[in-house]
Every structure is written in structure tokens, then in C-alpha cells.
């Protein structure tokens, strides 16, 4: 079962440097997958199953904030460009039931979801970003786990 709140960090195992960019007009939660727009601002990754770097918002602990503290529009968002093998605490889409070993892709709103295999096997239409390292059950209508976060490894 996923570790319950309070989580202390999004960046579990990573030597990637901390980066910072301004948030667009939408709030961002730590653990959200990000993308950079043409104005060099960050927003939640908005292409479900689509390509993207492993950019994840991290908590702004230099200001005493935790993983549950939201960045507001216009805030300076702390994030990392995670590399293959790094471990990250990512947000999971409500309604998902993740088990260790599941391949995770962007849901198109900053959260992650299980990749969907074709009937022939494989994932030709989705860009896998992470592999889950634990069970994270968000399948109940109440949102399952208390926090909606899951430990995962960048692949």
C-alpha cells in the first residue's frame, strides 16, 4: 500500500539539479508531471499518453513547504528533470489501481495512469515514463489512498 501522508519529499533518489520556472495560470501540485510552454513557463503535462521528459514538480522545502502544498499561478515552481533510474513520488489519477511493476504514462493533467497494452501486446501508442514501485489504489470513488501519490522509477 502506498505510504500515507505526510510524504516528505518527491525526489526519492536523484542527483538531478533543482530547477525553477514560473507557473502558468494553473495551480501545480508537487509530484505532478510538467512540461515547459513556449513562454518558458511550466504547466502540468497536458498530452495524455504522449511524449515528455520526466519533469516533476518537487516541494519547495526552502520555504518550509511540503509535498501537499500547491504552487499557485505565477509562483516559482521547483522541479527536477529526473533521469533513468531515479525514483520519484508521482501523483496518480483518481480511479486508477496501480500495482508494483505497472508502466505509467501521463494522464494529460499532471497525474499518471497505467499504460494500456494493445490486444497484440505492447504499448505502441503510449510513451512510458515511469514504472510503479508499489501498490497505489485510487480506484474507490473516495479516491482510495489518502494522498494519491505513488513511488515510481524513471524508465
Architecture overview:
A hairpin with a 5-residue loop joins strand 3 and strand 4. The protein is built from no helices and 13 strands. By secondary structure, it is an all-beta fold. It has a 6-stranded antiparallel sheet with strand order 1-7-13-11-9-10, with no helix packed on it. The N terminus is likely disordered. The radius of gyration is 15 Å and the shape is globular. The chain has one domain: Head decoration protein D (Virus Head Decoration Protein, Chain: A).
Mean pLDDT: 86
Shape: globular
Beta-strand portion reads 25-35%
Reported by name, the CATH topology is Virus Head Decoration Protein, Chain: A
The CATH level-2 architecture is identified as: Beta Barrel
Write the layout of secondary structure elements.
Blueprint: E1 11-13, E2 18-22, E3 34-36, E4 42-44, E5 55-57, E6 76-81, E7 87-91, E8 97-98, E9 103-106, E10 112-114, E11 130-132, E12 136-137, E13 149-154
Antiparallel strand pairs: 1-7, 2-6, 3-4, 5-6, 7-13, 8-12, 9-10, 9-11, 11-13
Key features of this structure:
disordered N terminus; 155 residues; Virus Head Decoration Protein, Chain: A; six-stranded antiparallel β-sheet; 31% strand
Summarize the structure.
This protein is an all-beta fold and 155 residues long.
